Amino acid sequence: MPVASLVSFRLGGPDGVSVQAATWGRALERLGFRLRRVAGELADGTRPGDVVVPGLAVAAEAAPGPAGQRPAAPQGPSPAELETALAGSAVVVVENMLSLPLHLEAARVLTGVLAGLPGDTVVLLHHHDFAWQRPETAAITDLPPRLARAVHVTINDFSRRELAERGIDAVTVRNAFDLDAPGGRREETRAALGCGPDDLLVLQPTRAIARKNIPAALRLAEGLAERLDRPVRYWLPGPAEDGYAATLAEVLATATVPVHRDAPDDLRLDAGGAAPGMGDAYAACDLVAFPSTGGEGFGQPVIESVWADRPLAVLRYPALEEILALGFSFLAADDPQAVAEALRRPDAPTAGRNRALARTHFSMEALERALGALVRTR
What we know:
Blueprint: E1 3-11, H1 16-30, E2 34-42, E3 51-52, H2 79-86, E4 89-95, H3 104-115, E5 122-127, E6 151-154, H4 157-165, E7 170-172, H5 186-193, E8 200-203, H6 214-227, E9 232-235, H7 245-253, E10 259-260, H8 278-284, E11 287-290, H9 300-307, E12 312-314, H10 318-325, E13 331-332, H11 336-344, H12 348-361, H13 364-376
């Protein structure tokens, strides 16, 4: 069975890159490949075939340095380590390591190793976002590299166009979701959080970082508490990263609604059931808030909320404009009055249309077709 290797700083976590890398991994397995994960950190533990290369890791909680750097170890990987980790791969998928300058030393070593792979190896550079799309890394021009045999893959068309302006051709493969996955455990999760039967739970299913615009989500929850005749709670399950912990503490200290910081896997649910996860968080909530305004390559909660059949309140950012152009319709996170009215009178036709559009554009089947074309024709 041919081997497909996924390479990144970290895999197996709740961040969008890790989630979509896992989705690509499932699609590659369904296409007949044996999966190998190569990363500096595997947040969900190692599996047979995985390779941990400590020199690839970044310190997720640290604020990026002047060049965007935040390596977890003082020294990056050696070429020999990466050559051994990738040996025998028919396909190598690089997940954002050659897109953002979080560890330039590791990126440069990996670039050299990829250039020396056998000529029949398929190399896909899966770009989720780029240095120029974030203020703190906009001055860095080293990435992505111009590798002669590599295929550049973006997750949206505006990134593909920006890459073309820099002289690199790419193809767009949209993020994919398992839209047939079973729903989570609503009542058990709410009970574990201490939610009453009438409590309205607002979920912001993200990490705690500046670009997720946590103050706006909290303002929405507080605005709903003023307009609805029921208690409102706010749940932010993701960890504080990018040096945001101190700012987050200041933001949450002034909250006028109860705030939950529990990660789903920390909750005590049915001992005999599946481990708690984000599916349970979506099931427990009554509204999803995602008020990012920039720096998002996609925004996982947008389609995840559609899968979970939960209303979504958003603010506008470039990647969202592409999703809206497909016909999706969501609530405005800066209009608590309109959101309150929508919660009182759910719009079933709009929810149904969103689900149909998600299946057309963001399904696992669509991803398998796109990946199949890339790995079989090169």
